[in-house]
Amino acid sequence: MSSELLHELAIGVCLMLILEGIIPFLYPQRWRNLVQQLALVSDRSLRLVGFASMLLGVIALYIVN
User: Measured between alpha carbons, how far is 31 from 25 in angstroms, rounded to an integer?
Assistant: First the structure.
């Protein structure tokens, strides 16, 4: 891997961490309730949502680039 690719990957991970932290920072009680509700969702549903999210990300990345 080139150092430029690793640098861009690191930037992506950092941005993901920032975005993931916004909701718990601004609305900790709502986030806690959401996590409790997610614990009740079936594995199949979580996998489907995860797959759809990855697919949407790949499509968005293709469009952006």
Answer: 9
8-40: per-residue pLDDT in tens?
Answer: 999 999 999 999 999 999 999 999 999 999 999
For CA atoms 40, 46, 49, 53, the dihedral sign is positive
Query: Sign (positive/negative) of CA torsion 60, 61, 62, 65?
Result: positive
- The gap between the terminal CA atoms of the chain, to the nearest Å, is 19
Supply 55's token pair: 């697919």
Q: Where are the domains of the chain?
A: 3-64
Q: Which of 25, 24, 45 is nearest to 35 (CA)?
A: 24
pTM above 0.70, yes or no: no
